[in-house]
Design brief:
This protein has helices spanning 16-28, 48-58, 74-83, 97-108, 126-137, 141-148, 152-166; strands spanning 10-11, 38-43, 64-69, 87-92. It is α/β, with parallel strands linked by helices and 177 residues long. The longest helix is centred in the C-terminal third of the chain and has 15 residues, at 152-166.
Amino acid sequence: MDVMETYDHFWPTGDSFFGLGCAGIIEKLPPHKADGSYLFINLDGVSLIRFMTHFSAMRALSKTMIIICSPRLMPLAKYWLVEYDYVAAIYESTRSVEDIISELIVILSGKVMVKPVLRRKTDVTHKDIYLLKSFLKEKSFAVIERLHGRQRSTIYRWRRSLTRKFGVRKIEHLLLL
């Protein structure tokens, strides 16, 4: 399924339960605020690689994105919230629907929300995003070594730094539900 094949309000399109949840949220928003210019993104282990690959292309949809993600992917969602203006809000999938609706009403009313600031050591950076894509797509350390022109010890250090930022033992654990 192509990244541009989205329903009016949610991505990935095959996740009907998420789509129903988004429809329920939109139903509770004031009618003039839910005009279809928002795209709810379900960011979890299943959609992670596909989303990272197609994130910049999604900008062509000209919709404001609202990311709802699993708790372990919050550092990644926070990075996108800080770095990209078209990401309006991020929520953990464990948040209550009522909390999400009340915050979205404030955001959609045009009030500017204060975006968090990224701290260098503990938050995800642009380099981390690039490395994460490499680790998730390339399974071989030899390929990653050649790709980045670094020694194996450096690659291990980068991987260890990423696992600490996401609170997982292995990068592959980000793909688990």
